[in-house]
Amino acid sequence: MVNTRRMLVTAVETLDEEKVVRLVKMGLNKGISPLDLIEDVHQGMKRVGMLYEREDYYIADLIMASLIFQRVLTLIPIAKKSAAEQKPQVIIGTVKHDIHDIGKNIIIGLLRSRGIGVIDLGVDVPPAVFVDTVKETGAKILGLSGLLTSSYEVMREIVDALNKNNLRSKVQVIIGGLVNEDVKEYVGADYWVDDCSYGLEVCQHILNIDVNSSSNTMAGVV
Amino acid sequence: MTTVIACETIKDEIIYVANKVQCKYPFLWMPSSLHKYPERLRHELQKEIDKCDKEEDNILLLFGYCGNAVLGLSSRYARLIIPKMDDCISLLLGGNQRRKDLSTEGRAYYLTKGWMNSDSGLAVEYHRCVMKYGYDKSNMVFKVMLKGYKSLDVIDTGIASKETMSEMMDSVQKLADRFDLEHKVIEGTLEVLYKSLSGQWDEDFVIIEPGEKVKFEDFGFDIQQSKMQDVISI
User: How far is B56 from B62, CA to CA, in rounded Å?
Assistant: First the structure.
């Protein structure tokens, strides 16, 4: 079992999609917990991220990793079940005028794989849609994604609209993408993340879910 | 004395304008690939500033905001002058507002000659992807990459020869056809570069005095206003 899991991490790292699929199916047949398998894929993806940072991988490789991850999620029964059954706790979308969604889609997969209900609003989402969805669902977390500098303005508009609708204190706002502390201050958000693993950890923290509650820890999270 | 630290992505345009205005500033070029890593770009820019700022009155940074890459930069001895633009796309389109206006006609993936020829250029990346993953998977990857875009737009600043433009458009058309996108030429402008290299640092530029740091609000983001909004929350 240990061997299968190690091989799975390496198969993701080397972006060998067919091998990943084969190992996940083999792991499920052997009785390895779906959460453990997802965690191995997650670890492999973190290595892909490191290889990108080292300039060994390119943007296309990051996208390939996200496609492999999405495919794995379709093989894991727990992921399919939990996403459908859970009450939405997190709302995520890429803000108006921006369509970058690779990181957004990865974190949605990570959250759903942990049984956290997510509403994905898609890309180029107008501020009113975010606000209305917070109002309708009572979700505790609002994730605003954006890679363009112009998205900061829209993120702030959304936070302002939450204020005006007396919703700001009811939801924690996380911004993700090319963001930092200054952008967080400007937007009026609660957290900023530029790493999907860290984003998952922040969501788990807000929702009072023990980060180490699955059988694997999140060691090495940035 | 003024030194220029500039991005290789717009090297052709900068050299063209420098020749036109007979600019004598020395140039330091930063690799295009650093754009993928804004933190690293910031670190490298600061290193270059620290190396040369003792002898200079001004350091002209021919970059835009570039994903927070210029945030926090400072010089002990020289003024830092930076175009007040989101990035080099806005710079070559004539400003953030024109870019915004153009986006109402449909979302475009902008291409410049420098970017296309760089290691991260779209066609270069596609070919690399095909070599590694084959056509089918590469097409899946690029469909994700180009999802949401309506067209591939080449910014023409007028400096490329007819032959070069024609070659570029052939390459762009192939990609556009493959991914069901439109493609066209968009007129660019070198106005900001002309102003940069002839010392006309007007409201299109951020000027940072020695000892001060580039701040978020220097690029038009007002943090104080944002904080005031929090008062309303219950």
Answer: 16
Number of domains in chain B: 2
CA distance B207 to B199: 12
Residue type, A75: L
Report pLDDT digits (tens) over B180-192.
Answer: 999 999 999 999 9
In a domain, B229, yes or no: no
* 6-65 in chain B: CB under 8 A from chain A: 33, 36-38, 65
What's the whole-number mean pLDDT along residues A116-121?
A: 94
If one compares A82 and A167, the residue with the highest pLDDT of the two is A167
Residues B101, B25 within the same domain: no
Residues of chain B with pLDDT under 70: 222-234
Stretch A97-116: mean pLDDT, rounded?
89
Nearest CA-CA distance, residue B233 and chain A, Å:
5
Same domain, B40 and B110: no
Domains for chain A: give ranges and CATH numbers.
Answer: 2-75 (1.10.1240.10), 82-206 (3.40.50.280)
| 3-class DSSP assignment, residue A187 | helix
Inter-chain touch B137–A17, beta carbons under 8 Å:
yes
Determine the residue among B145, B149, B217, B231 to mutate to test chain A binding: the one whose Cβ has the most chain A Cβ atoms within 10 Å. Answer: B145
Per the listing, tokens 């910014």 go with B155
The range of the structural domain enclosing residue B99 comes to 95-187
> How would residue A84 be classed by pLDDT, with cut points 50, 70 and 90?
low
How open is the CA angle B227-B230-B234, to the nearest 5 degrees?
Answer: 170
